[in-house]
């Protein structure tokens, strides 16, 4: 009888674990929760993102804007500047590690002047317009098809990216 109970408990734990993973990581019934408004950001605290040498833009992410919601989406502000100096463009984005997709919610070209993106849609990470998003996801936000365990872990990996075999 005791063996049957242990087996039942193990089966329940595995089922619960599977349901939790399905909810965050690849459930076909997944639904995004409402995105909060674009947060304030600081250009003084940006963590540089490693980009290919041929890129004419420099990208940095404000670590204070990184948030993970219950639906598994990692949202953040990333700022693009010309390597020569000058103006900037900021993007409020979300990454869904489970599906390798991203969404741009808003853009700003001056502090606090967010402009909502018209009809934001999920797009595949890796298209030409999302090289910076792919870099951010690989360097710190995602571990395989799941968000990293915590925002502090994400920040640690963004500051010192390690190329992992996943």
UniProtKB/TrEMBL annotation:
**The keyword Flavoprotein appears for this protein:** no
> Does Signal show up as a keyword for this record?
yes
For this UniProt record, the keywords arranged alphabetically read as follows:
Signal
A Pfam family cross-referenced in the UniProt record is: CNP1
Q: Which residues form the signal peptide?
A: 1-22
* Annotated ranges, domain CNP1-like uncharacterised: 28-159
Spell out the protein name for this chain: CNP1-like family protein
Q: Per the UniProt entry, what species is this protein from, by scientific name? A: Variovorax ureilyticus
Q: What is the lineage of its organism?
A: Bacteria, Pseudomonadati, Pseudomonadota, Betaproteobacteria, Burkholderiales
